[in-house]
Amino acid sequence: MDSKKLLDLTVEAIDERHGEDTEAYDMQGISILADYYVVTTAGSNRKLHAIVNSIIDKIHEQGKEDYRIEGTRDSNWLLVDMGDVVVNVFTADARDFYGLEKLWSNGKKLELNLD
């Protein structure tokens, strides 16, 4: 699966679980680690895990099995590393505290079509 298709599936999964303030950055040619970085906010820890589970379910439906999740059951931040696409799901306080978007300021912020 190409990185753009993986990004689209990821954003769709986030939107279905009502991720908030979702942003995606195109880092192709800038970062050697991933083509796209995505960040979203979950209203609670429970919703944070629901968003991550939705992403994993979507990519499994497409046959993608290689990914890694960083964080624990009690975390306020989970990272899903799917190779070409890296997703950070935060609670609001954790997202404000870490401010990861600054790391991707060299990338192109993508326009997302979300409900």
Automatic annotation (TrEMBL):
<protein>
    <recommendedName>
        <fullName>Ribosomal silencing factor RsfS</fullName>
    </recommendedName>
</protein>
<dbReference type="InterPro" id="IPR004394">
    <property type="entry name" value="Iojap/RsfS/C7orf30"/>
</dbReference>
<comment type="function">
    <text>Functions as a ribosomal silencing factor. Interacts with ribosomal protein uL14 (rplN), blocking formation of intersubunit bridge B8. Prevents association of the 30S and 50S ribosomal subunits and the formation of functional ribosomes, thus repressing translation.</text>
</comment>
<dbReference type="GO" id="GO:0042256">
    <property type="term" value="P:cytosolic ribosome assembly"/>
</dbReference>
<dbReference type="GO" id="GO:0090071">
    <property type="term" value="P:negative regulation of ribosome biogenesis"/>
</dbReference>
<dbReference type="Pfam" id="PF02410">
    <property type="entry name" value="RsfS"/>
</dbReference>
<dbReference type="InterPro" id="IPR043519">
    <property type="entry name" value="NT_sf"/>
</dbReference>
<keyword id="KW-0963">Cytoplasm</keyword>
<dbReference type="GO" id="GO:0017148">
    <property type="term" value="P:negative regulation of translation"/>
</dbReference>
<keyword id="KW-0810">Translation regulation</keyword>
<dbReference type="GO" id="GO:0005737">
    <property type="term" value="C:cytoplasm"/>
</dbReference>
<dbReference type="GO" id="GO:0043023">
    <property type="term" value="F:ribosomal large subunit binding"/>
</dbReference>
<comment type="subunit">
    <text>Interacts with ribosomal protein uL14 (rplN).</text>
</comment>
<comment type="similarity">
    <text>Belongs to the Iojap/RsfS family.</text>
</comment>
<keyword id="KW-0678">Repressor</keyword>
